[in-house]
Each structure stands twice: as structure tokens, then as C-alpha cells.
Amino acid sequence: MSMSTGPSANRGPRADPPWASGSKRVPDLVTRRQPAPLEVRVTPARSGRRRLSVKWILLVGVLALGGWIFYEIETLPDVGWLASQNPDRTALMRARESEAREHGKKPRHEQRWVSLSSIAPHAVEAVVISEDASFYLHHGVDLDELRDAISKAWFKGSLGRGASTITMQLAKNLFLSGERTLLRKAKEVLLALRLEDSLPKKRILALYLNVVEWGDGIYGIDAAAHAHFGVSASELSVAQGAVLAAMLPAPRRWLPARRPRILRTSALRIVERLEQTGKITAEQSTGARDEIDRILGDKPLNTEEDSEQPDDDR
Questions:
Q1: CB 296 within 8 A of CB 256
Q2: Dmax (CA) of the chain
Q3: What is the DSSP string of the chain?
Q4: How many CB atoms lie within 10 A of CB 102?
Q5: Which of 39, 162, 204, 236 is least surrounded by Cβ atoms within 10 Å, i.e. has the fewest?
Q6: Per residue in 131-183, pLDDT tens?
Q7: How far apart, in whole angstroms, are the C-alpha atoms of residue 156 and residue 132?
Q8: Residues 26-38: what's their mean pLDDT?
Q9: To the nearest whole number, what is the mean pLDDT of the chain?
Q10: Model confidence band, residue 91 (pLDDT cutoffs 50, 70, 90)
Q11: Does residue 67 surpass a pLDDT of 90?
Q12: Where are the domains of the chain?
């Protein structure tokens, strides 16, 4: 056999490729381990962005709430002018007038302004004992009563009655609506504090006694004394003063002419407390009890009106 004489004939045996040299060898492809399945994970960067978004939302919410509260506080009415002027109309009066017009009725408005010294002292004491026994001790807000009222409202899921001092009632009657909301109660508290900062206690009491409701379209104790008993505020007896004070939780339903049982019970209790605190004598107490029985009798004229539920969240 003839041999090739070309250039390749002198190379000798074919050399292995470079990758095949040495002790290393390519792993068998058949036995190579398969990669583990990919896992979908939230990367730290994405989780961090999510937390940052939540923080921004909370921050914006807090700032918005703070701004709203600041606005509500700043827009509350000024009360300083009440030191020397009597209000012409209150928020409660305007609300009652609107209600009457909505029902096609002519609004009734009876009111006579009198000074505190022109009101029978025992009638003033009856109102204070009935509505706010700590009136001269607190600064417009009875914190213990307010805390109890808020706790009850929290468990009931709605704002009920209670905790409203005379100053808070005055603030509501003068400036606020009758809606039962925490916002209105907060405004009531803030306005009560402003009233206490701006006015002496006697002025607050005089304003309250002249604007509070005592029947349909009847405002103030002098108009109430004339409407229910035919006398002036200075001529009110102990019994009459106690009956007027007992009307305040529901002044348009607990009327002496209807003789509701709750009105008699409350008036007798007020007389008892007046005697216990030394505001009246035992002899005056006995006379007042007898007079209350004559005014209100033993049986109500209209049992449908004999409800112990007050009109609002006093």
C-alpha cells in the first residue's frame, strides 16, 4: 500500500483536543442534577416599598385629621361678647322655628330677659341641683361624668345622655345643633371651656336661665314662670321652682298641665335635695311637697306623655 507523502503524513497520531487533556473530564450529561424549581419570593426591596406606602398613607391620614380638627376649632364662634350682650336668637331657637315652619305652623317665641337677682334664689338652686350640682366646682366640664358618658357610649355604640354641665348645655343651646355625634360633643366641650375662660359663673348661670327651653316656644325662666304658673320669676315658690327644674330634661313633654308622673317624682326629689343641702328649711320642704301634690296630683292626665326618656343627651 502506498503511503501519503503530504504534509499531514509527518504529524503522527492525532492529538486530543485541549479540553480533553488533564485529569478532569466532562460530567456525564445523563447523570447531571436537575436545577431546583424556582421559588417566587417578595424581594426585600418590594416589601420595603410596601411598608413605606402604608406609612405615607397613615401620615397623610393623620395630617388630614389634624388639619380638619384645627379648622373646626378655629371656626368655633367667639364668646367674649356675651359678657356684656344678650343673644337675640340661639341655635336651638332657630332650629325650633325651622321645625314649626316645616310643619306649616307659626313659630312661637316667648322670652323675657331678667337678671339673676330677679329670680327667686330657691328656684336658681333647684336648677343647679337638678342639672349640675358641681357647677361652682368645675371649669365647665365635669371630667368624671364625661369619662363615664364616653365609656357608656363606647359599649353601646351610640352617644347617649349624660355629662353635659350647665355650661355645656348653654354652649349647645347658643351655637350648636342637636345631633348626637362625638364631633358635636367635642365642640360643646371646647365652647364650654371658652365660656368659662371668658365669663364669670354668675353670668353663665344668668344666660342659661334666660335661654333654656321650658315648653314649646317658651325660653327663659321668667317666661316659663308666667306660662306655667302665672307669676314672675321672682315670685316663684319653692315647689314651682322645683317643678320648673324637673322639666328641663324634657321641657316640651314633661309639662305641668299634663301632670306626668316622672315630673312629680323628679320635683319631689329636688325638694329633698334642697333640704339635705341646707338650701331650704324642713318647714319649707314640707310645704313644697304639699304644693307639688296640688300642682301635679297623683295621676297623670295623659299617660302617653308619662315617659322617663329625656329629649336629648343632656
A1: yes
A2: 159
A3: -PPP-SGGGGS-SPPPPGGG-SS--PPPGGGPPPPPPP-----HHHHHHHHHHHHHHHHHHHHHHHHHHHHHHHTSPP-GGGGT---SS-HHHHHHHHHHHHTT-PPP-EE----GGGS-HHHHHHHHHHH-TTTTTSSS--HHHHHHHHHHHHHHTS--S----HHHHHHHHHH------HHHHHHHHHHHHHHHHHS-HHHHHHHHHHHSB-STTEESHHHHHHHHHSS-GGG--HHHHHHHHHHTTSTTTS-TTT--HHHHHHHHHHHHHHHHTTSS-HHHHHHHHHHHHHHH-SS-S-GGG-----SS--
A4: 8
A5: 39
A6: 999 999 999 998 877 777 666 666 665 555 557 899 999 999 999 987 777 78
A7: 24
A8: 53
A9: 83
A10: very high
A11: no
A12: 113-305
Question: Phi/psi of residue 108, each to 5°?
Answer: -100, 135
- Whole-prediction pTM: 0.76
* Angstrom distance (rounded) from CA 235 to CA 252: 23
Burial of 270 (0-12, 13-18, 19+ CB in 10 A): buried
Q: Judge whether 248 and 130 are in contact, CB under 8 Å.
A: yes
d(CA 113, CA 237): 19
User: How is residue 175 written as a grid cell?
Assistant: 351655637
The 10s digit of each residue's pLDDT in 230-257 is 999 999 999 999 999 999 999 999 999 9
| Residues 105-126 as b or e (16 or more Cβ within 10 Å = b) | eeeeebbbbbeeeebbebbbbb
- What is the pLDDT at residue 16? 53
Domain 113-305 has CATH 2.40.40.20: no
Amino acid at 182: L
As beta bridge partners, residue 219 has 111, 213
- Only one residue has cell 302617653, namely 304
Residue 59: CA count within 13 A, CB half-sphere:
6
pLDDT tens string 177-213: 877 777 888 899 999 999 999 999 999 999 999 999 9
Query: Residue 83 is which amino acid?
Result: A
